[in-house]
Every structure is written in structure tokens, then in C-alpha cells.
Design a protein that fits this description.
By secondary structure, this protein is of the alpha/beta class. The chain has 5 helices and 7 strands; from the N terminus they run H-E-H-E-H-E-H-E-H-E-E-E. A 7-stranded mixed beta sheet has the order 3-2-1-4-5-7-6, with helices on one face.
Length: 206
């Protein structure tokens, strides 16, 4: 059972999507991820986009930690209903609407997004069957909607190849946690920092 780890709604138990259609980020990986994002100082007052949101766990965690606006995008009906329930939990704590839920295919959502709407932090946790060319299309559609200094986090199987980043979006770090690998990218990098070496695998249950 997943929970919000820290922030205004820290400790709140989240509703999970029934069945096995989604692959939720474990609390162990989520805690490691947000520790890094806190170090990057990209969460406070950020506009956050959670694509393939599933239960919305990453988006609502961002809202709890001080993001000013969060958009959850999920096409599956049951999952989008769970997103809304989890959004309601965090919005109730904030006493205003921080998290919005959009039932839509990711590609359609990005196609409809008006020019000039920018996000500071974007999560992509697509289903494993989504192949790399399809993910590359989504990343290309996302690129015009990234704010200066934005961070994009792609979560994939540790057996999957690195995403094919479009021109203008470059990977600057990666981390592996058991069966999960996180890729971090940013826009407009000309001479980015040297890639950080992978840390030893942090298997579940240790």
C-alpha cells in the first residue's frame, strides 16, 4: 500500500489502482527519487506534469512537498478515478485545488496543450509494452512545454534501453533500483555536467 512520504500530507495512505494494469512506483524508489529532486530544488512552487499517472502517486507527492500546480494524465478509467480520489486527499489538505486530473491519452493531451503552457517537473512512467519509438514521440511533443531548467524523469524497466531523447533534451543522470531505472533529463543543455556513475543496485526488501 502506497503512501505520501513527506510534506503537508505526509503519511497519508493513497488509494491503489485495482488489478495489475498499472505498475506503481514503490515507496522505496519514490523516496530515493524525491530525495534527489529535493537536492535539485525543483519541487517548491513548481508546475508538475505526471504522464501515465496510474494512481497519481508521484504527482500528489509533489503537491504535498510544495508544488503549486500538478496535472495528472491517465487514460484508463479505473486509474483516472483513483487519481481523482488521491488528488482530492491532497487538495483537502491544501484547502485549494493544487492537483487536477485529466482523463486522456498522453499524446492527445500534449497535442491539445496550448503554446506557452510550461512545466518545471515532468514524470513519465509509461507501461512497459510502450516501445522506445513511441516514447520518443511523446518526449518530442513534451519538449516545447518544458520551462527553463525543467527536469524530466523517465521511469523504465532496468532491462529497457535508454530513452531516445529528442534534440534539445539531454540526459544528465540515471539511477537503478532493483528492477527499476530512472533517467533524468533537462532541456537546452549545451555542456551539461558529467554523467554520474550508477550507484550499486538497491534491491527491494533489503
Amino acid at each position: 500500500m502506497s503512501r505520501i512520504i513527506a510534506g503537508a500530507a505526509g503519511g497519508t495512505t493513497l488509494v491503489s489502482v485495482p488489478g495489475s494494469l498499472t505498475r506503481p512506483t514503490t515507496d522505496r524508489v519514490k523516496e530515493a527519487l524525491f530525495s534527489r529532486l529535493d537536492a535539485f530544488e525543483v519541487i517548491a512552487d513548481a508546475r508538475v506534469l505526471d504522464l501515465y499517472a496510474g494512481s497519481g502517486s508521484l504527482g500528489v507527492e509533489s503537491a504535498s512537498r510544495g508544488a503549486k500546480a500538478v496535472d495528472l494524465v491517465e487514460f484508463d478509467g479505473k486509474a483516472s478515478e483513483v487519481c481523482q480520489r488521491n488528488a482530492d486527499l491532497v487538495n483537502a489538505v491544501a484547502r485549494h485545488k493544487v492537483v487536477s486530473v485529466h482523463r486522456s491519452k498522453v499524446e492527445s493531451f500534449l497535442d491539445r496543450t496550448q503554446a506557452g503552457i510550461l512545466w518545471d517537473l515532468v514524470f513519465l512512467d509509461p507501461p512497459y509494452p510502450l516501445d522506445e519509438p513511441a516514447l520518443a514521440v511523446v518526449l518530442a511533443k513534451l519538449l516545447p512545454h518544458l520551462a527553463e531548467g525543467a527536469v524530466v524523469v523517465a521511469e523504465r524497466s532496468s532491462r529497457a534501453p535508454e530513452p531516445s531523447w529528442p534534440d534539445g533534451l539531454e540526459r544528465f543522470a540515471e539511477r537503478k533500483y532493483g528492477e527499476t531505472k530512472l533517467w533524468f533529463a533537462e532541456p537546452g543543455v549545451e555542456e551539461g555536467p558529467e554523467d554520474e556513475p550508477d550507484q550499486p543496485e538497491d534491491p527491494e526488501g533489503t
